[in-house]
């Protein structure tokens, strides 16, 4: 059973995580990959799981994005649907949702599960599993 303070903290965490992810979305939609990457943990331990396999590290993840989305047309307009934001441990949550990219080179949609952690006062994605579904 949760007490009021825990429930309030949970809601504050969820709001802060949503805010961080929406900032990523806005950076993406402004074709600013560096600002988009601010949401990721800048560490060699960052893990990205995608259709191309597993990528370790912030820099390798950045390079993957640059290769997969080589132009503004490939970036398109990103939108998220958050289906669940739930605590795993203190200061660690998982986020499950959908992404929708509207683009002139063809729309694409997928699902994701992120693990986010509060690091030095900021929420960061420490693991990302994103898969295209159409």
Summarize the structure.
By secondary structure, the chain is an alpha+beta fold. The chain contains 4 helices and 6 strands.
Verbal overview:
This protein is α+β, with helices and mostly antiparallel strands and 134 residues long. The protein has a single domain (4-132), classed as Nuclear Transport Factor 2, Chain: A (Roll), CATH 3.10.450. It is built from four helices and six strands. Strands 2-1-6-5-4-3 form a six-stranded mixed sheet, with helices on one face. Strand 4 (92-102) and strand 5 (108-119) form a beta hairpin. The longest helix is centred in the N-terminal third of the chain and has 26 residues, at 4-29. The model has no long low-confidence stretch (mean pLDDT 94).
In CATH terms, what is the fold-level topology?
Answer: Nuclear Transport Factor 2, Chain: A
Name the beta content range: 35-45%
Strand order of the largest sheet: 2-1-6-5-4-3
- Could you state the oligomeric state of the chains shown? single chain
> Biggest sheet: strands, sense, closure?
6 strands, mixed
* Helix-strand category: alpha+beta
pLDDT average, as an integer? 94
- Helix residue percentage: 25-40%
CATH architecture level-2 label: Roll
Instruction: Output the helix-strand order.
Output: HHEEHHEEEE
Radius of gyration: 15 Å
């Amino acid at each position: 059973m949760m007490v009021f303070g825990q429930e309030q903290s949970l809601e504050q965490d969820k709001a802060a995580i949503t805010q961080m992810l929406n900032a990523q979305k806005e950076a993406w939609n402004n074709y600013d990959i560096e600002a988009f990457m601010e949401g990721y943990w800048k560490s060699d331990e960052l893990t990205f799981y995608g259709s191309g396999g597993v990528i370790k590290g912030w820099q390798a993840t950045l390079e993957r994005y640059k290769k997969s989305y080589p132009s503004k047309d490939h970036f398109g307009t990103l939108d998220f649907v958050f289906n669940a934001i739930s605590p795993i441990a203190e200061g660690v949550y998982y986020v499950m949702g959908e992404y929708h990219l509207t683009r002139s080179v063809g729309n694409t949609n997928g699902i994701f599960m992120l693990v986010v952690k509060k690091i030095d006062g900021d929420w960061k994605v420490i693991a990302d599993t994103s898969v295209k579904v159409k």
